Amino acid sequence: MPKITYIEHDGATHTVEGEAGATVMETALRNGIASIVAECGGGCTCATCLVHVDDAWSPIVGPPSAEEEDMLDSAFEVKPTSRLSCQIKVTDALDGLIVRTPAYQGR
Questions:
Q1: Which residues pair with 4 in a beta bridge?
Q2: Strands of 50-53's sheet, edge to edge?
Q3: What's the burial of 64, exposed, middle or buried (CB within 10 Å: 0-12/13-18/19+)?
Q4: Helix/strand/coil (H/E/C) assignment for every residue in the chain
Q5: Do 13 and 79 touch, CB atoms closer than 8 A?
Q6: Domains in the chain and their CATH numbers?
Q7: Residue 11: phi, psi to the nearest 5?
Q8: CA pair distance 53, 71, nearest whole angstrom
Q9: What is the DSSP letter of 89?
Q10: 20: nearest Cα among 106, 95, 70
Q11: Reported confidence tier of residue 39, pLDDT bands at 50, 70, 90
């Protein structure tokens, strides 16, 4: 199973196993990562699952879709490597993925 490391805004680090086919958001929720709020449950309609993908992983994860870009436009603390974790599917290629969460999840 691919391992994903979540680094919360306060420095707390959680490395967990993800299930291929699930999303990075679902993996966070299943493992009690408190800084992923996910108000819409993964519908790409709230931007409360924002993560900053580690620079080394950004090309592997890929860019956001147009729909995701629209949601990122209304999010806080957006950076060039920002993604909505509900839109990142866990695959074997993402084994070792590192994401950071912002101090605030909202719009």
A1: 16, 97
A2: 13-17, 3-7, 97-100, 50-53, 82-84
A3: middle
A4: CCEEEEECCCCCEEEEECCCCCEHHHHHHHCCCCCCCCCCCCCCCCCCCEEEECCCCHHHHCCCCHHHHHHHCCCCCCCCCEEEHHHCECCHHHCCEEEECCCCCCC
A5: no
A6: 3-100 (3.10.20.30)
A7: 95, -10
A8: 16
A9: B
A10: 95
A11: very high
Checking if the pLDDT of 107 tops 90, the result is no
**Lookup: tokens for 67:** 């729909």
Task: Report if pTM > 0.85.
Answer: yes
Which amino acid is it at 48? T
Neighbour-count burial of 6, counting CB atoms closer than 10 A to its CB (0-12 exposed, 13-18 middle, 19+ buried) = buried
At position 102, the amino acid (one-letter code) is P
Which ranges in the chain belong to alpha helices (H)?
24-30, 58-61, 66-72
Token pair of 65 as six digits: 């879709």
Q: How far apart are CA 66 and CA 14, in angstroms?
A: 30
